Amino acid sequence: MPTLLSLRALKSRALRRGVWLRLDPAARALLDASILYLRRGGRIKSQTLAEALRAVAERVLVLTTPIRVLAKAIGMAIARAR
Known about the structure:
The protein is mainly α. The protein has four helices and no strands. The protein has one domain (4-81). The longest helix has 18 residues, at 47-64. The protein is elongated and about 50 Å long.
């Protein structure tokens, strides 16, 4: 389950790297609303909401990860397949 600290860290990382505005507005709104809900003492119990947050987190991580790291991961996967 996502925690308040992990979601806030994810948002701050996206803001620092300049990819926050490249996310679609629905993803940004979902992340902001979840942070606000958790800050006010709520718990995320819905599996659907958790999956949606996980998808947004993956998208942010893909956008913030440097190209060289992605290229190395893809190259290693291809090398293992051979």
